Amino acid sequence: MNSSNCIIKNNTATNNYGGHPDLRIGGGILLVDANSNTVINNFLTKNIIGISLGRSYNNMVIQNIIVENREPVYGWMEGGIEVGNSDENIIANNTIIKDYIIVSASCRNTIKGNVILNGGGIGTGSGFDNMFYRNVISGCDVGFTMEQARDFFVGNLIVNNTYGIFIHFSNGSTFYHNILINNTVQVPKDVYPNVNVWDNGHEGNYWSNYTGADLDMDAIGDTPHMLDELNMDRYPLMAPINIFDAGTWNGVEQQIHIISNSTIMNFQINKTQAKISFNVTGETGLGFCRATISNIIVQEMWNKNYTVLVDDAEPIFMKNWTDGTSTYIYFTYQHTEHMVIIIPEFISNMLLPLLMLTTTLSIFFRKKLKH
């Protein structure tokens, strides 16, 4: 309480519940009126609450493992990380099992990179401008729960939950680049007429139950995905989106987005070699990728002249286009496992003769060996 600039690190806290079910004082790690502290690499289980922030600001809660904390007063309610009446904190890269994250009456917090499995998901209420970014929520009753909230939800993976996103009496939140797969109900309709935004004006979310087509081959559905009569994703993605950090370019942190029906692995960007590479894997059928790359990267690495190779060969189909900020590259291939590289165009022009020379020499030496 009333403490700042502390580091709480590498501790184990277990079975802290005040000694009596009616004594709701205690828990794993509690911060009250505490600012600019760091809570990192702790293990918390079977407490009233794992980590709690109350009236606390600018704290970092990162890389903790939080498993099956309970509130004895309510029996089966989980208690993972709670943020109440607290602003501008970072809750990042925590692993939470059979628990939840809840943000209430709080603003401008960043909740990112957390993994929540088989618990209560993430809840937000009575606050605004919180950012929920690149969290993974799976096997929960509800992925995200909102009540009287106005927040941002970007790049979250919400998979195999009973409800994907449950919205109650909440308007004005923004959702895009989220991936919703095989939730029993993706977004149930509320008794109140909630109105929220389901894209960023160019791209929306991936919905595993979207059935629209993509005839113009830009990885965006040709028709909107309707949630109800007041809510629709105008630009649904045709496949999950992969978000990769690309480092700093001209003093600005950049990302590369790849929408693909393949599994993307081993993404690398090499400034020295002017090369972006990654592996694509799929079982059958036609695979596709659409890479979105900042024009700053395209200019600096390739002077706007680049080519795409799939296992050192041209894709089956390729198209590209650009706008004021980004370059978009769409290409297809037959599904198996492939190495994809994007390199300067003049290098690709040298590769084909080199491959032909290598093949010719190989045939020549084989014939000599036979003689």
Keywords:
9-stranded parallel beta sheet; globular; 8-stranded parallel beta sheet; about 45% strand; mainly beta; about 10% helix; 2 domains; Pectate Lyase C-like; about 375 residues; single chain
Secondary structure topology:
Blueprint (H helix, E strand, L loop, with lengths): L6 E3 L2 E3 L14 E4 L5 E3 L2 E3 L5 E4 L5 E3 L2 E3 L13 E4 L5 E3 L2 E3 L2 E5 L5 E3 L2 E3 L3 E5 L2 E6 L2 E3 L3 E6 L2 E5 L2 E3 L3 E6 L5 E3 L2 E3 L24 E2 L17 E4 L2 E3 L7 E9 L2 E9 L2 E8 L4 E7 L4 E9 H8 L3 E5 L6 E6 L3 E9 L2 E8 H26 L1
Parallel strand pairs: 1-4, 2-5, 3-6, 4-7, 5-8, 6-9, 7-10, 8-11, 9-12, 10-13, 11-14, 12-15, 13-16, 14-17, 15-18, 16-19, 17-20, 18-21, 19-22, 20-23, 23-24
Antiparallel strand pairs: 25-26, 27-28, 28-31, 29-30, 30-35, 31-34, 32-35, 33-34
General description of the model:
The chain is mainly beta. The protein has 2 domains: 7-233, 3 Solenoid (Pectate Lyase C-like), CATH 2.160.20; 241-354, no CATH class. It has 2 helices and 35 strands. It has helices spanning 295-302, 345-370; strands at residues 7-9, 12-14, 29-32, 38-40, 43-45, 51-54, 60-62, 65-67, 81-84, 90-92, 95-97, 100-104, 110-112, 115-117, 121-125, 128-133, 136-138, 142-147, 150-154, 157-159, 163-168, 174-176, 179-181, 206-207, 225-228, 231-233, 241-249, 252-260, 263-270, 275-281, 286-294, 306-310, 317-322, 326-334, 337-344. The strands form 6 sheets. The chain has a 9-stranded parallel β-sheet with strand order 2-5-8-11-14-17-20-23-24, with no helix packed on it. Strand 33 and strand 34 form a beta hairpin. The longest helix is centred in the last third of the chain and has 26 residues, at 345-370. The radius of gyration is 25 Å and the shape is globular. It starts with 6 loop residues before the first strand and ends with a helix. Residues 72-77 have low confidence and may be disordered.
